[in-house]
Amino acid sequence: MYPAEHFQQHDGKQLQQLVNSYPLATILMPNSQSQLNDICHVPLLYDLEQKVFIGHVAKYNPLSLLDGQSVNLLFSGEDCYLSPSYSQNKTLPSWLYSSVYITAQVRLITNTDKKEQIMQRLTDHFELHFSKPDTTKWQLDEVPVQHRHAMYQQLSFIEFIPCHWRGNFKLSQNKSTAIRQTIKESLLKHGKESIAQLFDS
Q1: Backbone angles phi, psi at 60, to 5 degrees
Q2: pLDDT tens per residue, the chain (201 residues)?
Q3: Which of 169, 128, 158 is nearest to 15 (CA)?
Q4: Fewer beta carbons below 10 Å: N end or C end of the chain?
Q5: Rounded to an integer, what distance in angstroms lies between the CA atom of residue 74 and that of residue 26?
Q6: Phi and psi (nearest 5°) for 97?
Q7: Which spans in the chain are helix H?
Q8: How far apart, in whole angstroms, are the C-alpha atoms of residue 198 and residue 78?
Q9: Using an 8 Å Cβ cutoff, are 72 and 103 in contact?
């Protein structure tokens, strides 16, 4: 079984927290001319009420041709090298990481009003995290509506409907509680707070 059972994360809130904190998805798409996947990177926002991911890509992106098909979304959280010094030499060198792997169905959006809603949601969300407290966040209506709609013709708006979530959190869960506590304290000491907090999950 891979990942090993002790590295699997089944807590839905933890999985959603990771995709919200690290929204840039690596999307693996089927390629009819190769056994390998096509890959693209797209920032996605998870709509908790609708239980879908929303995003947009350039209209020439291969995703634009996959309406109704399944793709895989990979979200990667923070990672770092684990030195034996972090565990007082009780572990071998390793790597800590967290990721969420989602199988989802592609649904292309053609309705202009819904495209506008998606762009508004994405803009509001990402501007909120981008803008500093003492600055005014950029507003979508700064672009005239006709100009916006013209630009939308160059984009494909997509909902990704998730059907299966898998979490892979490699955080030394196969070690004793005492060793994991030592590792966590070392991570905090070295400023790796985000990944250290996952040790409590």
Answers
A1: -85, 0
A2: 577 788 888 888 999 999 999 999 999 998 777 776 789 999 999 999 999 999 999 999 999 999 999 999 999 999 999 999 999 999 999 999 999 999 999 999 999 999 999 999 999 999 887 766 767 788 898 999 999 999 999 999 999 999 999 999 999 999 999 999 999 999 999 999 999 999 887
A3: 169
A4: N
A5: 5
A6: -160, 165
A7: 12-21, 112-130, 145-152, 177-189, 193-197
A8: 10
A9: yes
Structure tokens at 170: 């490699």
How much is the pTM?
Answer: 0.91
Closest CA to 196 of 166, 168, 169, 167: 169
> What is the distance between the alpha carbons of residues 18 and 120, in angstroms, rounded to a whole number?
22
Residue 137 CA to residue 122 CA, distance in Å, equals 13
Residue 55 CA to its chain's centroid (Å):
12
Q: Taking a C-beta distance cutoff of 8 angstroms, is the pair 117, 52 a contact?
A: no
Per the structure block, which two tokens stand in for 192? 């790796």
